[in-house]
Design goal:
about 15% strand; 4-stranded parallel β-sheet; globular; alpha/beta; TIM Barrel; about 130 residues
Length: about 130
């Protein structure tokens, strides 16, 4: 869902169902781990635009050490702004490629992190698919 407003306009009315990913709950994490600028405003804008005329399946890849800064804000934003989506927490994060550069990301998720993410989603009332 990280694309320009021009692309969003082109997709409007053409796409019936979006399978959209939301990985980071803030700009800082997106910049640090994916070298992406303005992630949060771009992705939230595109989800809001898609929500007007399409069905959305939102996937959130839960990241180690990022429940509070990424998973929780994503769930809260979704509940407030686009509540009628199918929300999918994904727990298949696996450290590969350059994760050795980020020791805090160079491990699998813990059971406690998975439980915190699931409990946050359950409390929100969003549909977990």
């Amino acid at each position: 869902m990280y694309y320009s407003s021009e692309v969003a306009s082109l997709l409007d009315g053409v796409v019936d169902v979006y399978l959209g990913d939301m990985r980071y709950g803030n700009n800082e994490c997106a910049r640090k781990y994916s070298d992406v600028q303005n992630y949060w405003p771009v992705v939230t804008r595109n989800f809001k635009t898609a929500y007007i005329s399409s069905e959305i399946l939102l996937r959130q890849l839960v990241l180690p050490n990022h429940i509070g800064c990424c998973t929780v804000p994503i769930i809260e934003w979704t509940k407030k702004n686009i509540p009628k989506v199918r929300f999918n927490l994904m727990f298949q994060y696996s450290p590969h490629y350059r994760t050795y550069e980020f020791p805090e990301m160079n491990r699998a998720l813990t059971g406690d992190e998975c439980l915190k993410a699931v409990n946050t989603l359950k409390k929100s009332g969003l549909e977990d698919v």
